[in-house]
């Protein structure tokens, strides 16, 4: 398991993502970026979809990036990365770049740029097998343009385009299970993590960049403006998303599934929902039914994941309760 | 002044030529250029370009990384990634494919990426139609790319090659679209002259851009966010790059002429110098028109043709010089700008503003509608009294 000291030492050695950007206080995105970049040993090249991260870190003529960084548009980060990675292979093949100095290609995209408008280009890139890691920072709505619903927005959340109102309890649809969609491409690594569990994320990144071909990690990231919680509670809100089983942490390695974190105490979903203004309306009497639906769905999904975990558990070294897996992981 | 080759020259040329379609010509050019990356998605009539090239790569005759992407949007996105990374990058498309690329065409131009695109010009939906017109390329008119329309397979081959050093000239650094008429050029076999592989490789040289993304020693932030304090200047710089194109093209064309004996200009003047009436056109139809001009000349009529090869940047000054003395000019557009005149007409009218010729505008050939010699003769006939037809005319249409 990585220690915070190791990550800090990596960052001290080479500060890949610097300050001076204009991401909000309490934004989860910088935690994702720093944890991911500090966990990768090789040089990195970053490709970024349009969204908060891109806009807030590269206002010309300034930049927060101290590594090669490319942004093209909203829906095509995976395709642009395919081009960069293919050019890299072509230049190595032709002796114009050294063959013995590996580079890791990392894509960052929000849930809008990944679940929705960028899904096709992500799917294409996963299918073609480019050597890259795609990290979705999932803050559950289009935040950059003012908190519009995405297909990652949870059932019942109020956004500016799925507002609660006299006859509406917020978003009427379930969120899309993007991690499962990525898994269906049969890539060698798919994982789900959260900003509250930086060691889990760091481990996953280390393993993701080792596998042959593309890897995908979906990271739950908070947005205090969109979720309407106290900025200082960002990590706590993410932690509770995990402890309520709203956002299970797991990975699928070469088709084998395992939960990477089992909460010691499972917290009722109400606790998490109550921390966030976007769910406030659910606590009106007339919406009690919606609350029940949400809790039941979470338990059903958890049972399904536990069953997958049980089925595949024999392929992994044992994991203790409330223990996050270690990098000394083996498939047995 | 261009004249027809002599019979002896024609026989000598045919002896050295290969019988190839325009699509195959473009594919041979790509084989010889051997770009680093070729992201691509199929669409008629571009398919024979990419199929021929894929086979070259499969046979080891080119070592390009082909990325068979899942859409043209991704083709152009991957092209931007590859070109930014530091690899010479080409792609090919047509019609709906170019339409889907458009967002990224603008971005590639603004990022100053020298990507060369082969276009098999085809009508746009709807209704869906696979045949030739120039509407697809016109979508990119204001995007900041250099645009050529070629007349035949030889030009298709030659312009693919010339476009590489033009695009990569450091004063230019812009994408280039080489449009060849769908089917009429892409699928029609003609004798064309291919240069030696080695000569083409030397001609295009090494790909060098000022700030490759894969320079890890000097990390760069590419494609950042602009606010009103910088955006306008960046757009102004794109215009400066366009302004550098005529000189850069002249240099490339001279070098190419030294290699091949074929000297190209942004425009081609055909029997224009003493013409009283002239047609302006782009693409394969110019071939038919030359025949008609010759016939009419034999009958003593003072007619001529101006073929525009380079549509962006538009060679305004050259067009004015070529046509300034002609009294009556008909511009034949193979695309429409609904609610206004044809896009080529508007350029020529601007070039001739104040110079005096009477002008007519015709639309022809949309969705692959044939243009016959009789139609062209009729245009020259109509031009005798240009004032009688000031409205836009449609050639070969059922009203
Ligand atoms: C083709 C296109 N459509 C729409 C937009 C407007 N747009 C920019 S960012 C964005 C939302 C981004 O949402 P997400 O990917 O979730 O990232 P976040 O804003 O949360 O960082 C939208 C809709 C765009 N830039 N391009």
TrEMBL record, chain A:
Name of the protein described by the UniProt record: Pyruvate ferredoxin oxidoreductase beta subunit
GO function terms (MF aspect): oxidoreductase activity; thiamine pyrophosphate binding
A GO biological process held by the record: small molecule metabolic process
Source taxon at top rank: Bacteria
Keywords: Oxidoreductase, Pyruvate
Pfam families, per the entry: TPP_enzyme_C
Matching InterPro entries: PorB-like (IPR051479), THDP-binding (IPR029061), TPP_enzyme_TPP-bd (IPR011766)
Occurrences of domain Thiamine pyrophosphate enzyme TPP-binding (ranges): 50-219
Automatic annotation (TrEMBL), chain B:
PANTHER family: PYRUVATE-FLAVODOXIN OXIDOREDUCTASE-RELATED
An annotated GO BP: response to oxidative stress
An example molecular function term from Gene Ontology annotations: oxidoreductase activity, acting on the aldehyde or oxo group of donors
InterPro entries cross-referenced by the UniProt entry: PFOR_II (IPR033412), Pyruvate:ferred/Flavod_OxRd (IPR050722), Pyrv_Fd/Flavodoxin_OxRdtase_N (IPR002880), THDP-binding (IPR029061), Transketo_C/PFOR_II (IPR009014)
Domain spans labelled Pyruvate flavodoxin/ferredoxin oxidoreductase pyrimidine binding: 28-252
Keyword Oxidoreductase: yes
KW Metal-binding (keyword) present: no
Keywords: Oxidoreductase, Pyruvate
Matches recorded under SUPFAM superfamilies: Thiamin diphosphate-binding fold (THDP-binding), TK C-terminal domain-like
Organism this protein belongs to: Gracilimonas mengyeensis
Domain of life where this protein originates: Bacteria
Residues annotated as domain Pyruvate:ferredoxin oxidoreductase core: 275-376
One Pfam family cited in the UniProt record for this chain: PFOR_II
Protein name (database record): Pyruvate ferredoxin oxidoreductase, alpha subunit
